[in-house]
Amino acid sequence: MKLYFTTTHADHKIALLAALAITIHIIESAFPSPLPGIKPGLANVITLFTFIKYGWKTALQVSLLRVIISSLLLGTFLSPTFLLSLSGALLSLISLILIQLPFRQFSLAEYQPGAVGYAIVASISHMSGQFLVAWYFFIPHPGLFKLLPIFITFAVILGLVSGIITQLLINQIQCEHN
Amino acid sequence: MLTIGKVIFKVTDIIILFAACILTMQLYSIFWFDGSQQGKAETLLVQFADNPPAEYSLNEDRILQLEGKIGSILIEIKQGKARFIHSSCRNQFCVFHGWLSVAGDSTACLPNRISISLKGTISDYDAIAGSQ
Questions:
Q1: Are the Cβ atoms of A114 and B9 closer than 8 angstroms?
Q2: Is A143 in CB contact (< 8 Å) with chain B?
Q3: Separation between Cα atoms, residue B132 and residue B93, nearest integer Å
Q4: Is residue A2 situated within a structural domain?
Q5: Which of the two residues, B21 and A111, has the higher pLDDT score?
Q6: What band does B130 get if pLDDT is binned at 50, 70 and 90?
Q7: Hey, is the C-beta of A52 within 8 angstroms of any chain B C-beta?
Q8: What is the pTM of this model?
Q9: How far is Cα A53 from Cα B84, in angstroms, rounded to an integer?
Q10: Which of B 9-38 lie inside 8 A of A, CB atoms?
Q11: Chain-centre distance of CA B96, in angstroms?
């Protein structure tokens, strides 16, 4: 019996983007964070780029591959860290889809947010997703909510920064649409 | 449309940024400057052995005299706080604990098998690992 194994162009694209995101994620995890729970989240630049350029399905695959493979490489697979990472990634993608939905539905494509707007939405929802999971599963205490404003402040600032980086990346990279 | 360097800020981006700033300020006002009654104690629970706890209001000042397992104890309630003022036990840990003032605060006299704790709308502690 012969097995034919073919890969499509889309697979190569996903693999390339996921590899980039994993690399950034792992390099970033080597740097100590100034405040616990706050990371620049530069790997999300790749997710955002993918979302804007290729749509949410590709972005979902890249994002899931990034979360799973980098956790395997870092040794945090199925640990609380992995759960936080996964919940943040999923919620940020869901909110990106929800933000984009009305612009697609009512053919207002020219008004849809640019990289900066999407980045801020993604960053805030990433942070809140992680926060809610941390609160629900690990520290179910109302006092934790005192930290939420600080986290969201950093999410807005870091979202702005990663949005600018994404915009520069989009300017820089010429890619075909499909 | 606003362009700074090579970065394009669309109108929607700016709206989202403003909304995010407003959301952040709202969160600060909700979670930091909330004048709620969090941590305020309302009732004193007194439990003897395995009996269900008896409740006393913290609003009226009074002194409770209770019979424990080895002798009598006195508990004072004053201005929303409570403390042991006398116990017949040897170590007097309960008396030295001093005032209980925050919801969730608790102390006990083990020889007498009496424990007291304060109850409020929202407890300030999730678990107590001993305060002595």
A1: yes
A2: yes
A3: 9
A4: no
A5: B21
A6: very low
A7: no
A8: 0.69
A9: 69
A10: 9-13, 15-17, 20-21, 23-24, 27-28, 31-32, 38
A11: 20
Given phi > 0 = left and psi -120 to 50 = alpha, else beta, which region is B130? left
A42 domain-assigned? yes
Q: What is the pLDDT of residues B34-87, one digit of tens each?
A: 655 556 778 888 888 888 888 888 888 888 888 888 888 889 988 888 898 888
ipTM computed for the complex? 0.85
> Count of domains in chain A?
1
Nearest beta carbon to residue B12 from set A112, A156, A171: A112
Give contacts of A 102-141 with B, CB under 8 A. 111-114, 116-117, 120-121, 124, 140-141
Amino acid letter, A50: T
Tokens representing residue B90 in the block: 């040897």
How many other β-carbons are positioned within 10 Å of the β-carbon of residue A18? 24
Domain of residue A140 covers 9-177
At B58, the amino acid letter reads L
Q: What is the pLDDT of residue B35?
A: 54
Q: Which two tokens stand for residue B63?
A: 């002194």
Q: Tens digits of per-residue pLDDT, B87-101?
A: 888 888 888 888 888
Residue at A3 is within a domain: no
Residue A73's contacts (CB-CB under 8 Å, 6 or more residues apart) are: A22, A26
On chain B, the residues whose CB falls within 8 A of the CB of A166 are none
Nearest-angstrom CA–CA distance, B77 and B85: 10
Among A48, A52, A148, pick the best mutation site for testing chain B contact (most B Cβ within 10 A).
A148
With respect to residue A152, please indicate whether it lies within any of the assigned structural domains.
yes
The closest of A50, A146, A132 to A93, measured between CA atoms, is A50
Q: Which residue of A has its CA nearest to B124?
A: A143
For residue A116, the domain's CATH number is: 1.10.1760.20
* pLDDT of A34 above 60: yes
Cβ atoms < 10 Å from Cβ of A115: 27
